[in-house]
Design a protein that fits this description.
The chain is of the alpha+beta class. The protein has helices at 59-80, 82-95, 116-129, 143-157, 264-286, 341-356, 360-364, 372-411, 423-430, 445-457, 463-469, 474-490, and strands at 6-11, 17-22, 27-29, 102-105, 159-165, 179-183, 194-195, 201-203, 206-208, 214-220, 234-238, 242-246, 289-292, 304-305, 311-312, 328-331, 433-436, 500-502, 514-516.
Length: 517
């Protein structure tokens, strides 16, 4: 009886036969080394990856026990690490800056045209409220101060919490009946984890409905948040009373993590390393040593003793003493700082800067081996990151503040000379607005200005867009120019700004363009 016959051969990508399939349906492997294996290298579980242990636990479950630790360690770094403090200063400077955000109300008339006069009235009223003494419930902070502290808090703690008081009685000091209160995020009762009978759930101190929308916050009461979990009293507040802002890394994330989380261990280890290096360098500079004695008696080396019998010896610069017979001196001279110290610390700092999404030279102030082109490229990319964070701050904090303020101000008629319309129509008309964050000076001013002028003249960019790139409002610029020209005319000066000035003739073949005076 004849056996199964060869039915087909199996080849690999290189054309080599690796197996054959017989007529009985069985496959016989000829050479396993020729079989290509397809899998993810990062999913290997062999001996080389045995220490890479991961968990499938939900992020919120991990934060339940880790968030308070992360926040406390980030606060410790803020107090004791110059790198962490520098990063938090960069956050304040680039997110908010010296002048904060610019508000532009975009209300329209019933005809559909810009309602410039009423828009200006609302903007003026908003910034009148945003002053110190009115914006903050304690009277200590202006709106810009609140934004700076909130940006720093979000970067350090991973989240910021602002309580909105929109039912205050009006007064001469606060005719709007509206104020903000900054709340320490540590007051949210992170360990509170409860399932309600009505389908609601409490996770990380936040009460959620069945759509995971916040309904309330468990806030730790008392003068200071208790540092011992489970031993404090907490009170439930409605979610609408708070603005809770954080950057989400994953869907279904209920609390934020410190922006330094990925590099906090590097910052801590580098700080400890630098402290040890500093001590070692100080010890090395002292040039100390030890005396070896034949019988352990050190009295022949001393000139005198103090009141308690401690041996004393006077050391004078340039003076060498003869040792008694049988005594030897053994020097102790540690070789530190090491010659590779700078290279090693710079490598670690570059990793930290990458993890924080900031440039190395901005974080450290080290401009060695930095060229103009490299610093320009790094600065432009870094500014894109800061503008992304500004957009987050606008949508999470500033837009809710403006809408809540406008609603309350219209309810108490705190904005003068608005049209005699009902409150709902006024709110619907003037709720349209934009915020614009700070912008930065050009890295290469001459070339960047020339490029902007060419883009505007070619129709690739509008004057409004060009002004927005500079962090200014084109309407404010035009108004300032007109006001200056009027002042110059009143003073009898022949100064005129804001007009197109023809350029001098250029050689044949050169581009003919115009510049702005």
């Amino acid at each position: 009886m004849s056996g199964p016959t060869l039915k087909e051969k199996l080849f690999n990508r290189r054309g080599l036969v690796v197996a054959q399939r017989n007529s009985d349906g069985k496959t016989i492997v000829l050479d396993r080394r020729r079989i290509a294996k397809r899998k993810f290298n990062a999913a290997k579980t062999d001996r080389l990856f045995s220490d890479w242990q991961v968990t499938s636990r939900p992020l919120n479950e991990e934060l339940r026990y880790a968030l308070d630790i992360l926040r406390n360690r980030a606060r410790d770094l803020e107090q004791n690490s110059e790198i962490a403090r520098r990063f938090l200063q960069l956050v304040e400077t680039h997110l908010v800056g010296p002048e904060g955000f610019h508000l532009t109300v975009q209300g329209l008339n019933r005809s559909g045209s810009d309602d410039q006069n009423n828009n200006a009235r609302i903007e003026a009223s908003f910034w009148n409220w945003a002053k110190r003494g009115t914006a903050d419930i304690t009277g200590r902070y202006s709106l810009i101060d609140i934004l700076r502290i909130s940006a720093r808090t979000a970067a350090r703690d991973g989240e910021c919490l602002i309580r909105v008081h929109d039912d205050l009685p009006t007064s001469k000091a606060n005719p709007y009946g509206f104020a903000l209160e900054m709340v320490d995020p540590a007051r949210i009762d992170t360990l509170r984890h409860v399932d309600g009978k009505d389908g609601s759930r409490t996770r990380l101190g936040i009460v959620l409905d069945r759509f995971n929308r916040p309904e309330g916050y468990w806030i730790i009461t008392g003068s200071e948040p208790n540092t011992y979990p489970g031993t404090h009293a907490a009170e439930l507040f409605a979610a609408r009373q708070f603005i809770h802002a954080y950057v989400s890394d994953r869907p279904e994330q209920y609390r934020g993590t410190p922006w330094m989380t990925a590099v906090m261990d590097l910052i801590h280890m580098l700080d400890e390393y630098q402290d040890s290096a500093l001590v070692a360098s100080r010890v090395g500079a002292a040039k100390m040593g030890f005396f070896k004695t034949p019988d352990g008696n050190l009295s022949p080396l001393a000139n005198e003793t103090d009141d308690v019998g401690t041996l004393l010896d006077e050391v004078v610069a340039g003076h060498f003493s003869a040792l008694p017979p049988g005594y030897e001196f053994q020097s102790f001279n540690p070789d530190y700082p090491h010659q590779l110290y700078r290279e090693f610390t710079s490598t670690i700092l570059r990793s930290i800067a990458a993890g924080l999404n900031v440039s190395y030279h901005a974080l450290t102030g080290d401009l060695n081996q930095v060229s103009f082109s490299s610093i320009r490229s790094g600065t432009i990319e870094e500014r894109e990151h800061w503008m992304t964070r500004q957009d987050w701050m606008i949508s999470s904090i500033l837009e809710p503040i403006y809408l809540r303020w406008l609603d309350r101000s219209l309810a108490v008629s705190a904005i003068p000379n608005l049209p005699k319309l009902n409150r709902e129509e006024l709110f619907s008309r003037f709720r349209l607005h934009t915020w614009r964050g700070r912008r930065w000076p050009w890295v290469d001013p001459l070339r960047d200005i020339e490029a902007t002028i060419m883009a505007v003249n070619a129709g690739f960019k509008s004057p409004q867009q060009a002004a927005a790139d500079l962090g200014v409002d084109v309407e404010s610029v035009l108004a300032d120019i007109a006001r200056f020209n009027q002042m110059a005319a009143t003073a009898g000066l022949g100064l005129t700004y804001g007009q197109t000035v023809p350029t001098s003739p250029k050689p044949p073949g050169a581009d003919n363009g115009s510049t702005q005076a």
